[in-house]
Amino acid sequence: MRRPMATAGRPRGHPDVMSRSSADAYDPAVPDPSAARRPTLVALLVLALSACGGPAHKDDAFVDAGVTGLLDIELTECFSDPEYSELAGEDVVLYLACDEGADNQSFMFVQAPDGPWDRDAVAELGWDECGRGFEQQWSSQDESGLDFYPILPTPETWADGDRAVMCAVYDPDGRLEDSVLPRSDGVTL
Q1: Domain that holds residue 120
Q2: How many domains in the chain?
Q3: pLDDT tens digit sequence for 56-79
Q4: Same domain, residue pair 80 and 34
Q5: Burial class for 73, CB neighbours closer than 10 Å (0-12, 13-18, 19+)
Q6: What pTM was estimated for this model as a whole?
């Protein structure tokens, strides 16, 4: 038999909350309150497991020129993914020696034309030009196992004259073990 739970100690009470005893556990006529939570729990577990593994995908919103340290990265240099720094109080990227392992490597810069800030146009330019540069160096994502993304200026850096779009290469399955830039003779640096 279901009965209302005591609500005297609760603010404004919860008169429609029903109790469920162990005797009700196998009675299909008595709704199981944990059943409503199961889809949420399953979704959280799937999300947690997907965060632990599987290929990463970085896009033009992953990091931008406003992240501390990014404007210090030069052509061919390796760097970390953005990570919160307690000391800086914000996300930062760090230069990393490629041979010590890194998350990304700069392989090209594209200069956007002057004009008013238009994020969509700059992103399209970045994807197009970085894509061409990627295909010239690695021929394909499937063959190389690598992927790329453009790193865009921000409205603030654009207002300061920044027109550079950095093209970064990364390994969707993990960190780069060394420089992944091919030498002119086709050997990876």
Answers
A1: 70-170
A2: 2
A3: 899 889 999 999 999 999 999 999
A4: no
A5: buried
A6: 0.69
